[in-house]
Amino acid sequence: MKTQVEERFSEFYEKWTYQLEEHVQQLVMVPKAKPSEPEDSELQALVSRVTSHYKEYYTVKWAGAREDVLAFFCPVWLSPLENSYLWVTGWKPSMAFQVIDTLKKSVVPCASMVDMSETQVKKMEELRLKIRLEEEKVEREMERLQVAMADRKMVELARLASRVENGDVVGQVDGLVEVALKGLLGGLEKVMKAADCVRLKTLKGVLEVLRPLQCVDFLAAICMLQIRRRQWGKIRDSQKENTSAEIL
């Protein structure tokens, strides 16, 4: 049974993904010829609409996490395939640089990415290194929280909870456990937001380095990857359900 947060966010995410597909259609329809100055501003407006769409996602996500942060560490609105790619409740920031590398080196390379200048390549490598350091910082904090579940206080509370029988004492122990878990959940919310900030910083940094047409091609690729992964996950889930039905 879903919690209220899971119900609300599942509904939001379905609509948000549908709108993302509409944005992708606009991105892929952009002519690949070198844009003139007026067209440049149109591309920038399109890029701005897509980034605003992502910002809306994080705004709603953070509001939901204040009520139930655990819902975002095991999201019911995603398929198992999508969940398997999660890094601290979302996409791993360094993936953005892999997408750019792939667009430059694929069998049918993206023309706009192949045309990246030496200055752009240098700035992108500097950003890649900076983001990797920030990823490691988030990972260390996540590891610290995971280890904290086995610290002395939590172990003693677990042992005490398994021994007590008196009703009053049980209530006291439950109260202590609630306080301890509240601290851990607060830590999870903090690390989730830190990871999201790295994601947003990555998008902002990459788009600042790229030219407008390159931004369009990059966003089209990264959005399409998210959409296709969702479609593949749903297909796989449907196949599993059909197989289970046949067995029964």
From TrEMBL:
Which is an annotated GO molecular function term of this record? sequence-specific DNA binding
Q: Which InterPro entries match?
A: Seed_Dev/Stress_Resp_Reg, TGA_domain
Q: Which residues form a coiled coil?
A: 121-151
PROSITE patterns attached here?
DOG1
Record's keyword terms, sorted = Coiled coil
Instruction: Output the GO biological process annotations, alphabetical, semicolon-separated.
Output: DNA-templated transcription
Annotated DOG1 domain residues: 6-239
Q: Which PANTHER family match?
A: DOG1 DOMAIN-CONTAINING PROTEIN, PROTEIN DOG1-LIKE 4
Q: What is this protein called?
A: DOG1 domain-containing protein
To which species is this protein native?
Castanea mollissima
